[in-house]
Each structure stands twice: as C-alpha cells, then as structure tokens.
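Possible regression after last week's pipeline update?

I re-ran a chain I had predicted before the update to compare outputs. Posting the input and the new output here so someone can diff against the archived version. Not blocking, just want to make sure nothing changed silently.
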Amino acid sequence: VRCDITMTQSPSFLPVSPGDRVAITCRASVDIYDGIHWYQQKPGQAPKLLIYGASNLQPGVPWRFSGSGSGTDYTLTISSMESEDVSTCFCQQSWDFPPTVIQAMTKNLPGKKKCEAGLPQLLLLLPPPAEGTAQRQPGPENYKEGQSEDSGGSSAR
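New output (post-update):
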C-alpha cells in the first residue's frame, strides 16, 4: 500500500509541569481540508478521540483541549496541563484513504492496510512538582543525570 498523505508530528517528547500550556503540531504532506483528528492514548488503554475535524471538541473531553489549523498545519493545544493528561497524543488524517497516523493502528479493515509515518508520537511526562526549599530525592524514573531543577516545565512553542 502506498501512502499518498504522510503525517509528521512534533515535538516527539516534551517534559511538562502542571499548569503548562502545551502545543503539539502535525503537518500533512498535502492540504487535508480539516480532515484531521487528535487522539490520546494511555498505557493499556484504547486511543481516545479528543478533537475531530481539526477543531471540534469530542463530547466529554475537557475544555482545556483545543484544536486549530488549516491546510497542511494543525495544532493540538492543552491550555493548562493536568497530571491526568500524561499520555501519548497523536494525529490522524481522514481526508484520503487509507487514514494516515503517526502510530500503526492495532486493528485494520479487512483487506486494507493503514499507512504510518516514521516519526514517533508525542509522550507527555510530568516531572515531580517543586517543593520550595524542601529536600527531595529524585527517583531514577523521573530524573536524568545532569538535569537541573529548573530544566523542566517548558512549554512547546
């Protein structure tokens, strides 16, 4: 199967803190006329639709999520990051068949294949919150050697 529309997404990884504004961009190789949808996936769970048709909020999804863009460039924005938002987020185009995603889908239509782009998805990770002057011992799962206390918390541009 040949993919006529490829999707690229950035950034691929972004450490953020609660309250941060986060923007994830997705670019299509051709104009997809708002035929883009954003999904969130947590470990062990099925993908959850956040935004459909570029800017429409799926019922039940918090208002802090929004979608924008046109033509080939689209953005998913989280206005104020919360700990429950830690997840993998990815876009999918539906303007042309087959639907193109950043990650291979686990289920395909009979006799059809979904194309996938080569870039990884965005993984949102929250570092532990700063505790003022209190001493804290970072664990190996949330600390990189040489990382300073103020290196986290940056928002995507």
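Follow-up from reviewer: compared with the archived run. Residues 7-103 form a domain with the Immunoglobulin-like fold (CATH 2.60.40.10). Marking as no regression found.
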